[in-house]
Amino acid sequence: MMRKPLFLLALLLPLALPARAQSPALFTGLTRLACEALLCLSSGSRPAACTPSLSYYFSLHKQFRTDLSTLTKRLNFLNLCPSASADTHMQSLTQAIARGAGYCDAASLNRNTYETTIRVCPTRPRGSPWWRQVDEEECSYQTVQAIDPHMPRHCSSYYQHGYIAPGDLKPPRYVGQPGHDGRWQAAPGP
Known about the structure:
Order of helices and strands: HHHHHHEEHEE
Distance between the termini: 72 Å
Number of strands: 4
Number of helices: 7
Largest sheet: 2 strands, antiparallel
Number of domains: 1
């Protein structure tokens, strides 16, 4: 008869201990790096504490023909963090980071080009009247490589995700005239 209450007391004793006696579990290894990378890549500021996790994240890329793609490797790494699959919003943030981080900066967007034909006309000779039109026969057409002025959808979803504070990640902006001198430029800092 006495054994039953003692047995129950032994089972419930760990639950009755104060919370400060139990230390919280800290992530270590790749799990910790993955969680840090999620935090750092969803923020506009990159403190020095982000360096190890971001170095590891950006070192993941396809090396061999039989290797996983860079995107898959980076997504698998981010999914090591338990928070990455906490809910559908975190899953979409993880997807947006894997597709956008490192692919949506000004330098990367300036590599997205298309071929276009532009009309090139000589400038009006100096001293000629302002109303003098350039003769159509003097103009020529040239095929050039131009930088695409449209931000890809995966970049828009990265910069405008609901879990990222508005204005925290500043997207690059397109400056200049599309088809001529247009290019992506990094957003000015704070």
